[in-house]
């Protein structure tokens, strides 16, 4: 664990509000998603990001529109933070033709290059090798674009992690490996499946800087991301960020969390990062209660609009079944 | 006026195709183990000279990391580049199957057409070089069974060059299978050879009694069988499939409609092989005109063995193909 050093970048008030806006959108979107799954209005496996709002929000305010991300099935917070339009996002989750992928990808495969979401994978660890290729492309084009590979703590035990970090380091790629360590790989507790106390230690083995960050602290997270992005843009190569966090609603929504104690879960939820940051913004004089209520109300309206848009949209025609298998034409 | 030609082997043919594509399009890249000249330009020299000519940024030797190689190729491809990745041996694709099958093949479809994956994966394989069970398999049926991939397997220098040109230009991921036994095969090839379209078989010789369909190095054995049969007065229509997926149903079915008899020969194990798909299609489409059941030849359902006598027995021989043709002629 690397202690915070003095003179780290601090987000200004507007940036802090921007982080909170993204966090609040993710949280409210999650509440709406769980409600709609619970009532059976939409049928999908739902991997709630509740509790992990800070990480992509504090990272994304350091990114440009043309920076890229590759994320995973628990990645809806990463997509919202990067700016995927809510209407197209909800329509995809609802399997409608107006969705990001015409309803053919679904919640586990949201793709929206226009906002930089290049790949969402359902395979643990597979965001990393592809992120390298996107970063390689930026390097070849002598662009300052950076690429973020999001993954979980479980993915740091899969071969793709090892291969990707090694290659990124040897090739000095402008990629940032962001491990959202929520303490559980599916149902398996971190320490029962991982050889080191901090995943960031693994960076040493690949010759790249690695840091463990409090992934629930927006200012810590912002500083770490800001420095990693600066390194990548300067051509100094990749960084591994281990962001410690907690997921509130298990692996897949509906699981009963039998692998943890009620006390442990309650203690983690006590430290809910969204209201904590909200209170901090007010205490620090960066926003008033009224200002935040107005922002939250507007976000709620945007989410409701997106849901209405999605549920009012058509399902793709059956011709889509064999379209996009290859370019231009159907399969055969 | 005859076109100017040059005598080249398959290694040179593929090298020329990649070089011409790199010359014409700065987006074409090469990556793989040992592909740069510092490492010898590939283990058999297919990429020799390319890094010297086009630079180490566009022709990158990689770590022995097949997942990372394919990930880098996929990421670059969805970012607008056209990577030609070398997976040294076809058996080594097994450690990169997630990247090839879950990602390269599916990203276009799952993204609703937003992220096409224009890449080529080259690989060599084939029994007969005393490499045993993990360096020799023909696994083309696995890839042909995967929607989103195209699969190519040339038998001669002209096709190797022309098909490689088409694969690099193709907007979708192409698996390019090179048989190590055939690398040294030479032929006069037009210097300004045009790309050979994918999905088009080549009728090597016309005939009236029986159709023989083959590809890759086994095609040469089919040609020898046809010569043998000609001495017996049997007129063989000989088809080199060239592209396995999408395969040229039209040409094969038109030929069998004419001859009423068909033999299919490949190196891969016979069970569940490409021959089964072609045979089933012929029976479905031409049941009324078939004069005999289709014969299909392939390896026995076993691993490629090391001992020379066993290895020789594994691979379909021209005498096997001729015998199968005679068997169809003895029926009906």
Automatic annotation (TrEMBL), chain A:
The keyword Glycoprotein does not apply. InterPro entries: DH_E1, PDH_E1_Alpha_Subunit, THDP-binding. Its cofactor is thiamine diphosphate. Keywords: Oxidoreductase, Pyruvate, Thiamine pyrophosphate. The keyword Oxidoreductase applies. It catalyses: N(6)-[(R)-lipoyl]-L-lysyl-[protein] + pyruvate + H(+) = N(6)-[(R)-S(8)-acetyldihydrolipoyl]-L-lysyl-[protein] + CO2. The pyruvate dehydrogenase complex catalyzes the overall conversion of pyruvate to acetyl-CoA and CO(2). It contains multiple copies of three enzymatic components: pyruvate dehydrogenase (E1), dihydrolipoamide acetyltransferase (E2) and lipoamide dehydrogenase (E3). This is Pyruvate dehydrogenase (Acetyl-transferring).
UniProtKB/TrEMBL annotation, chain B:
PANTHER family: PYRUVATE DEHYDROGENASE E1 COMPONENT BETA SUBUNIT, PYRUVATE DEHYDROGENASE E1 COMPONENT SUBUNIT BETA. One of its GO terms (molecular function) is oxidoreductase activity. Coiled coil: none annotated. InterPro entries: THDP-binding (IPR029061), Transketo_C/PFOR_II (IPR009014), Transketolase-like_Pyr-bd (IPR005475), Transketolase_C (IPR033248). SMART domains: Transket_pyr (SM00861). Residues 8-185 form the Transketolase-like pyrimidine-binding domain. Keywords: Oxidoreductase, Pyruvate, Thiamine pyrophosphate. Gene3D superfamilies: 3.40.50.920, 3.40.50.970. Pfam families: Transket_pyr, Transketolase_C. Its cofactor is thiamine diphosphate. The keyword Zinc does not apply. This is Pyruvate dehydrogenase subunit beta. It comes from Novosphingobium barchaimii LL02.
């Amino acid at each position: 664990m690397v202690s915070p050093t003095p003179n780290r970048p601090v987000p200004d008030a507007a940036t802090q509000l921007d982080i909170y806006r993204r966090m609040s959108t993710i949280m409210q979107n999650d509440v709406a998603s769980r409600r709609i799954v619970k009532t059976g209005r939409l049928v999908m496996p739902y991997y709630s990001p509740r509790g992990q709002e800070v990480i992509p929000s504090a990272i994304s305010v350091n990114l440009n529109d043309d920076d890229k991300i590759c994320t995973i099935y628990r990645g809806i917070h990463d997509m919202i933070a990067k700016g995927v339009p809510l209407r197209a996002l909800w329509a995809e989750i609802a399997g409608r033709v107006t969705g990001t992928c015409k309803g053919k990808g679904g919640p586990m495969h949201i793709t929206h290059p226009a906002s930089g979401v290049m790949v969402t994978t359902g395979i643990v660890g597979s965001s990393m090798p592809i992120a390298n290729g996107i970063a390689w492309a930026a390097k070849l084009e002598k662009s300052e674009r950076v690429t973020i590979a999001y993954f979980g703590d479980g993915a740091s035990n899969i071969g793709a992690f090892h291969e990707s970090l090694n290659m990124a380091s040897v090739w000095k790629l402008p990629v940032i490996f962001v491990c959202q360590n929520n303490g559980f790989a599916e149902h398996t507790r971190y320490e029962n499946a991982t050889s080191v106390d901090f995943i960031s230690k693994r960076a040493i083995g690949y010759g790249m800087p690695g840091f463990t960050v409090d992934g629930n602290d927006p200012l810590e997270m912002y500083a770490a991301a800001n420095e990693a992005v600066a390194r990548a843009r300067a051509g100094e190569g990749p960084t591994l960020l281990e962001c410690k966090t907690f997921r509130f609603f298990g692996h897949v929504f509906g699981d009963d969390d039998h692998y943890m104690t009620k006390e442990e879960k309650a203690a983690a939820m006590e430290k809910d990062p969204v209201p904590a940051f909200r209170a901090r913004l007010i205490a620090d004089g960066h926003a008033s209660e009224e200002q935040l209520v107005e922002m939250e109300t507007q976000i709620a309206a945007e989410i409701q609009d997106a849901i209405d848009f999605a549920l009012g949209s058509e399902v793709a025609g059956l011709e889509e079944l064999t379209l996009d298998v290859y370019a231009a034409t159907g399969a055969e | 006026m005859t076109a100017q030609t040059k005598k080249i082997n398959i290694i040179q043919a593929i090298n020329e195709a990649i070089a011409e594509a790199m010359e014409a399009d700065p987006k074409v890249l090469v990556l793989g183990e040992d592909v740069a000249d510092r490492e010898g330009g590939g283990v058999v020299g297919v990429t020799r000279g390319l890094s010297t000519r086009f630079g180490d940024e566009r022709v990158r030797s990689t770590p022995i990391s097949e997942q990372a190689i394919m990930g880098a190729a996929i990421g670059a491809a969805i970012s607008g580049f056209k990577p030609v990745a070398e997976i040294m041996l076809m058996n080594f694709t097994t450690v990169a199957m997630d990247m090839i099958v879950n990602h390269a093949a599916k990203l276009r479809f799952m993204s609703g057409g937003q992220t096409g994956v224009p890449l080529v994966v080259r690989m060599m394989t084939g029994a007969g070089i005393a490499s045993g069970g993990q360096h020799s398999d023909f696994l083309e049926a696995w890839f042909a069974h995967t929607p989103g991939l195209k699969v190519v397997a040339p038998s001669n220098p002209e096709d190797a060059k022309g098909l490689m040109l088409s694969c690099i230009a193709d907007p979708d991921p192409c698996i390019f299978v090179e048989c190590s036994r055939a690398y040294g095969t030479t032929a006069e090839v037009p210097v300004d050879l045009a790309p050979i379209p994918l999905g088009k078989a080549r009728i090597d010789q016309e005939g009236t009694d029986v159709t023989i369909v083959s590809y890759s190095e086994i095609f040469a054995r089919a040609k020898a069988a046809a010569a043998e049969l000609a001495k017996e007065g049997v007129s063989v229509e000989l088809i080199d499939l060239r592209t396995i997926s999408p395969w040229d149903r039209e040409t094969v079915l038109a030929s069998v409609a004419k001859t009423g008899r068909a033999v299919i020969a490949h190196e891969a194990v016979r069970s569940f092989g490409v021959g089964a798909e072609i045979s089933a299609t012929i029976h479905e489409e031409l049941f009324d005109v078939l004069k005999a059941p289709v014969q299909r030849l392939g390896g026995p359902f076993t691993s490629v063995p090391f001992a020379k006598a066993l290895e020789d027995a594994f691979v379909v021989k021209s005498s096997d193909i001729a015998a199968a043709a005679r068997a169809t002629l003895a029926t009906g």
